[in-house]
Amino acid sequence: MKLRNKLLLSALVLLLMPISTVRFLRSLDKWLVSREQIHLSEKVQSLSSGLSPFISHWETERSLTEAKLVFPIALETEVILDGFENEWEASSNNWNKISGSTHQFLIGKFNDYFLLFIKSAINPKDFNEMFQYELSFSQNSDFNNLQIKPQVPGKILATSASNILQSRVQGFWYAGENQVSLELRIPADLVTKTVKLEVTTGTDKNTSNWLELLIPVQEQQQLLDSLKVSFGERIWLLGTQGEVLGSKGELIESLSNSDNPFLNWLIGTAPRPLEDPWLGVSQLSGSWLDEAQKSGWATRILAGSNRHQRRMIAVARIGNIDNPSGFMVYEKITGTNLLLSQPQVGLLLNMSLGLMLVTIVIFLLFGGKLSLRIRRLQRQLTDSLDRNGRVINLQNAGKSKDELGQLSREVRKLLGRQKGYQDYQERLASRLSHELRTPMAVVRGALDNLKANHQPINSSESNIQYENKNALPGDSSELESSELIERGLVGIERLSSIVSRMREAARLEEVIYHSRCVATDLQQLVKQITQGLASVWPDYYICFETPPEIFARANVAPDLIAQALEKLVSNAVDFSEPSTSNIAISVTQVASTLSTSLSMDKGRNQFKISVSNIGSLLPEGSEHQLTENMVSIRNAKQNSNVKSNIQNEPHLGLGLYMVGLIAKFHHGKVLIANRPDKNGVISEFTVVS
Fold first, then answer.
1. Contact 388, 513 (CB under 8 A)
2. Could you report the per-residue pLDDT of 143-202, keeping only the tens digit for each?
3. How far apart are CA 88 and CA 104, in angstroms?
4. CA–CA separation, 456 vs 472, rounded Å?
5. How wide is the angle at C-alpha 656 spanned by C-alphas 652 and 657, nearest 5°?
6. Is 477 helix (H, G, I), strand (E, B) or coil?
């Protein structure tokens, strides 16, 4: 994983800070809700206890037990009778339907009047049908029925069942494109607690159930007005059956949403406008009412408008358990507990998020800059070395005072020392050869002069000397001097050969460094080199055995290929008998691509140049050591099988080492092993193009 990615992951750990803050706030919200629930239960019990002496005489019996309870809409402004419902501002709970029909109606109250709005969805072809509306009241009322038979859109005339005009009843009938509507205003003294509506369209008659109007008495309203309700809370006064006797307050959000959408998502602010499920209801029911009747109080947390919002209710019984007079319900939206401190919470979260984002940006900038400096240092180090590990140039060191700048300067010092040691090694062979040639020339000259002074004398001179001195021919001291002179000359030759080979190896590394590859027919090149090598060693049968159908075209350095092949053939000649076996040279193409530490190229051509000879075998386990520098594996048995003058040649192990350098230059490698038939050795190196 890259350093920049590691720093990014480390920076993301800072996300735990706002996450832990949000978890704390939500746990705090739960605690506040539980505390608020207890507070509401205590508050509603206190209110119900205070109201019990005042409402014990209220009538709680219903007129008709089968009637539907309807709480008239308390209209704040006078409604204009025009057949439109815009001024009513009713919710879906305020609408009452006549089962089996499209007729719906609203019942409201303003001052001393009851208002009725009836709308019917019809097809345009039914406009010619006769519409008739009839309101039926309780049998105990002197005013029993009210009939309306509109003819044309406009004001209506209302009559009683005995066809007496009721001028106090006013209304307007509207016929629209797809619906008709009737809006009435009826004096309160004409309306009883129970009412039933009947709508006739042509021959189709639809009648509603009996409706019982929940009309708060003056004492109830005064008691509700005397209670103090906080903003965003609502209090209900219910009868024994859960019928709504009155309410005070509005269940709305006490605070508006924050301008921070992320904060709203975390805390869970409620949408606006608030969806009030109890708006316009006439009767409340639930298990919490039964629980409050038995135990005296109950609390519930109901679902709100979204997943973060909850509605908290607390209900208390008014009166005793045997003869309750009603219920007091206190309602409030939860989820606003945290919103009450929203400016402080928003400041806390904004600071946390801001610090987190700034820290992440700083981490990314620091990590990016650090990664860039490390890549720059790596690129400088790569540009300072070639593919063979030689120092070619020195890059400028960093000037920063931190650890990376210090590392850059130390790396440059290390490369400078490496380059100095590399230059010293490159000049060492030349200096040694130059320094050794002078004393070798002096020693050679001295030995040549000494040898000239010890030349054999002719027989006549020898006879005269023998006769005069009575000396025997072949005196031992003279023979020993001649043998020492010969050994000195052989040593000088071997020392000269060593110097030459050391200089050849040093020169070869420099030649490899400056060599350039060209497109060459490898088969034709090796064939020409084989012919030249055969002329150098005429006593050995050196042949080229590459099949003619092989097309070996590769980018190689021809001079280096010739030197490598010459070293392999020279090594094969050393361990072969002249005129008894052949030395075979071949070029083949390898199917798989070579993968070395220096070359991981895919899809390139690979060719193998092999030299096979019949002779002594390699010792087991020595194959991988032959291409190392200054390594030569020759035992007495092998030396006895080669020609006699080979023993006088110095063997420094440089030949196969130079072959390895040439193969490495061509992205290949050297392999030396015994032949499968165990009759000799096969030496090969590969080139990749």
1. yes
2. 568 888 888 889 988 888 778 888 889 999 988 878 889 999 999 888 888 888 888 887
3. 14
4. 14
5. 80
6. helix
Q: Which amino acid is at 385?
A: L
Structure tokens at 212: 């019982």
Range among 33-42, 256-265, 421-430, 526-535 with highest mean pLDDT value: 526-535
pLDDT one-digit tens code per residue, 577-616: 776 668 999 998 886 544 443 344 455 788 999 999 988 8
Q: Read out DSSP for 240-290?
A: TTSBEEEEEE----SSPPPS-HHHHHHHTPPPSS---TTTT-SB---HHHH
Contact in structure between 610 and 683 (CB atoms under 8 Å): yes
Residues in Cβ contact with 94 at an 8 Å cutoff, skipping those fewer than 6 apart: 73, 88, 106, 279, 280
Q: How confident is the model at residue 258 (pLDDT cuts 50, 70, 90)?
A: low
What does the mean pLDDT of the chain come to? 76
The token pair at 120 is: 């019917």
Q: Which residues contact 336 (CB under 8 A, 6 or more apart)?
A: 232, 253, 254, 255, 270
3-state secondary structure of 65: coil
Residues contacting residue 331 through CB under 8 Å, at least 6 positions apart: 233, 234, 235, 236, 251, 278, 311, 312, 313
400-404 CB contacts, 8 Å cutoff, 24+ apart:
404/370, 404/373, 404/374, 404/377
* Residues across the chain: 689
